[in-house]
Amino acid sequence: MNNFQELGSNDNHILAECYFVNLSSVDLFILVLYIIAIISIGWIAARKVKTLDDFATGGRHYTTFFITATLASSFIGGGFTTGLAEKVYSLGLIYIIALWGFSLKEILVAKYIAPKMVNFPSAHSVGDIMGQLYGRRAKIFTGISAFLVCAGILGAQLMAFGHICNVLLGISSHFGAFICALIIMTYAGAGGMRAVVANDTLHFCVLMVSLPLVFYFGTQAIGGFEKLYFYSSMNFSNNISYSSIALIFLSFFFGETLVPPYVQRLLIGKTIKDTIKGNMASGLLSIPFFLMIGLIGIIAVTMNPDLNPNLALPYVVLESMPTGLKGLAIAGMMAIILSSADSFLNAASVSITHDVLTPIIPRLTQTQKLLISKYSTYVVALSGLLFTLSLESAIDILLEAYMFWTPIILVPFVAGVMGVQRPKKAFLYGAFTGISVVTVIRLLSLKHSAYFEISIWGILANFIVFFGYRPMPNFSRNSV
What is the 3-state secondary structure (H, E, C) of the chain? Predict the structure, then answer.
């Protein structure tokens, strides 16, 4: 009987210490080398960051491969890996279908939204686009919303990293989350988008090698692909209805649609063709990726049905991977989380400086804007850590964070980018209605499953008010 089974799911701290001892010097060397590499790359990239444009968009010179790598690395984070493996472990393989809502969204964005970015050649952020469409107040409102959603999604990545550190290093999950925040602040806070894209490309390459290896060795550990098919059939749906999956599908379809880091990726391409191809490739890539992660969740429940679900992915790595490759796999797990965390950290810091403070204090110089953006990373990281204290699941943190974005920004953003012209007040009234509906339902609802529904109701309310608003006629004495 292995150490996991002997200790049970309530002794994860002790369990982690046992497995840390069993990591070979080769595995530890790979991990340390990887962390040194990403910090070094970030600081090297930071030397070329002279302006806010460098910090926010990296100079807009990236080709299709780099856009694919940084975008895929950004959304393939802790929530969509350790979080997905956890949900499949608990609820069954059917949960993958819900995640494919995200994949469909990315494909549609590449086809219909990315080509429209030619109309915003000087934009640094979502706030810039919203300001161009609906005015100064819309830009500030968008910046605040962007900060909140990015901090929440960052929190999901920090929690996932914390769970990995709990298993591998024997430290508490919250302290592991703090370590993750410290690492990304070290390089992303200094190098901005240049550092983020450079490291995301490294993360992407490591991920594309390590994840299939984890899947392969995990499959062999349970007896091969025939056994995997059998156990997948046995664990297809566990205590979750098709209607719930449909609601979660919609939540993931709308939830991260055009959140700040993904919009930034629409603005950094060398040409619009690079932007379109990069976004389409990342969307298509996510389909088999989510399937692979879900199947790793099935492998985990097959190997140990009494495991803490949050530990499903690291458990398979530790139980099935050989020495040397285990270190590479652990580096891949770290890459998954760091690549997403640094993107949301960067986007939130840019939103604070460029979308909130600059419209309020227009006399800020370029040097001051750059410094504020760098220091804002500390505020964002702290806010992300606060999110990790509020919920126990990375997926649940994601769903909570979505409520700060889609009910407020999604409808007017898509409408404006697609050329639909509406009054500035339509945005303000629609945004206020969306956040009001979300707040009221959130306060009144005691059911955990309400996360899946709240954002949808907020989006619907925003849609009705945004398109239903009509300015009051201006009656004057001369018209009587």
Answer: CCHHHHHCCCCHHHHHHHHHHHCCHHHHHHHHHHHHHHHHHHHHHHCCCCCHHHHHHCCCCECHHHHHHHHHHHHCCCCCCHHHHHHHHHHCCCHHHHHHHHHHHHHHHHHHHHHHHHHCCCCCCHHHHHHHHHCHHHHHHHHHHHHHHHHHHHHHHHHHHHHHHHHHHCCCHHHHHHHHHHHHHHHHHHHHHHHHHHHHHHHHHHHHHHHHHHHHHHHHHCCCHHHHHHHHHHCCCCCCCHHHHHHHHHHHHHHCCCCHHHHHHCCCECCHHHHHHHHHHHHHHHHHHHHHHHHHHHHHHHHCCCCCHHHHHHHHHHHHCCCCHHHHHHHHHHHHHHHHHHHHHHHHHHHHHHHHHHHHCCCCCHHHHHHHHHHHHHHHHHHHHHHHCCCCCHHHHHHHHHCCCHHHHHHHHHHHHCCCCCCHHHHHHHHHHHHHHHHHHHHHCCCHHHHHHHHHHHHHHHHHHHHHCCCCCCCCHHHC
**Domain extents for the chain?**
3-125+151-348+381-396
The model's pTM: 0.77
The CATH-assigned architecture of domain 3-125+151-348+381-396 is Up-down Bundle (1.20)
The tens digit of pLDDT for each residue in 422-445 reads 999 999 999 999 989 888 887 776
Top mean pLDDT of 44-48, 245-249, 313-317, 353-357 is at 353-357
Any idea which of 6-15, 17-26, 396-405 has the lowest mean pLDDT? 6-15
